[in-house]
Amino acid sequence: MKIVIPGGSGQVGTILARHFHQAGHEVVVLSRATNAAVAKPAAWRSVGWDGQSVGAWCAELDGADVLINLAGRIVNCRYNHKNRCEIWASRTRSVRVLGKALETLAAPPRLWLQAGTATIYAHRFDAPNDDYTGIIGGTEAESPDKWRFSIDVARSWEGEFELVEAPKTRKIILRSAMTMSPDPGGVFDYLLWLVRLGLGGTAGSGNQYISWIHHLDFIRAIEFLIATESLSGAVNLTSPNPIPNQAFMAQLRSAWGRQFGLPASEWMLEIGARLIRTETELVLKSRRVVPARLLEAGFQFRYPEWRDAAADLCQCRKQPC
């Protein structure tokens, strides 16, 4: 297959590009950086684009099998006006320009996998949000303004994708949870850093749910979606077993061999978030999301439980897999 990945120079994009390249597929990453600036070594090709205007990069999509759009500014930042505008624009504009590009192609990709986010679902503790009955944003009206911003971005992101008319292309929106990988610079790397410093205790009340997915299951789910032609629309990409923060961190500490982690109250988290220029929403919002459609279609998780996933990820950090 030929697989084109706009925004594929980030952590998740690198995980996918590396896997598909090693599997013998042709991989092309569309990046805002020039070829010379893209991190090396990279065995796959990188082609420049600006994420907002049609250009020579469109030729890479003509005859391609799969388009996986991961473009979007990182959300691990303070939500000031500048960053909000960039987060919003980088997501909606990239979808819009890809839609325009497909209109010009004689042979558009047969499948478009569009990055989305499990953050689109409501902050809740009572029941999980699945692909069918999940509450989109519901209780966010009583949440901080910055939490509502994330919901609004997610809705606009998906809304822009729904507007694209691509009759020859199957379209799937990926409502992804945090992808846990032993690679440096990702979510797991940061959480493990806290554990190693003795700071990986309960965050806030500890009752908020964490939705996650092991990187191998993320890859396998992408392959499953490519092969399962009956699936389209919104699909949750997350482990079937989200767990509260308190248990999540305790199991991570156990996997690394640490008995204690300093807990952090909400006010402590707010101070810490300001210091490292991020938002407490990323740790305090209860993301209780489950993958009903994947399970219904017959997908089997290799790491459905966080305890096993954490043990594997920690082992890979100690002895690279």
Q: In summary, what is this structure?
A:
The protein is an alpha/beta fold and 321 residues long. The protein has helices spanning 11-22, 81-103, 145-163, 187-196, 215-227, 245-256, 266-275, 281-284, 292-296, 306-318, and strands at residues 2-6, 26-31, 45-48, 66-69, 111-115, 170-176, 178-180, 209-210, 212-214, 233-237, 243-244. Helix 4 (187-196) crosses helix 6 (245-256) and helix 6 runs parallel beside helix 10 (306-318).
Can you put this structure into words, describing what you see?
The protein is of the alpha/beta class and 321 residues long. The protein has one domain (2-183, 211-241, 286-303): NAD(P)-binding Rossmann-like Domain (Rossmann fold, 3-Layer(aba) Sandwich). It has 10 helices and 11 strands. It has helices spanning 11-22, 81-103, 145-163, 187-196, 215-227, 245-256, 266-275, 281-284, 292-296, 306-318, and strands at residues 2-6, 26-31, 45-48, 66-69, 111-115, 170-176, 178-180, 209-210, 212-214, 233-237, 243-244. Helix 1 (11-22) links the parallel strand 1 (2-6) and strand 2 (26-31). Helix 4 (187-196) packs across helix 6. Mean pLDDT is 90; it is low at 35-41.
